[in-house]
Amino acid sequence: MGVQIPRKKKRVGLLSLLYRLNRLMPLSNRQKLKLYLDFEWIFDRMAMEASFKHYSPEEHPHRRFANRFLLRHLAPHMQVLDLGCAKGDMADLLARHVGRVVGVDHDAAAIAHATQRYQRPNLSFRHGDALQYLRDCGERFDVLVLSHILEHLDEPEAFLKQFSQHFTWFYIELPDFDKSYLNHYRLDLGSSLVYSDDDHVSEFDRHELHGLLERTGLEVVDAEYRFGLQRLWCRRATGPALQ
Question: Cβ neighbours of residue 230 under 8 Å, at least 6 residues apart?
Answer without folding.
Answer: 172, 173, 174, 175, 176, 204, 206, 209, 223, 224
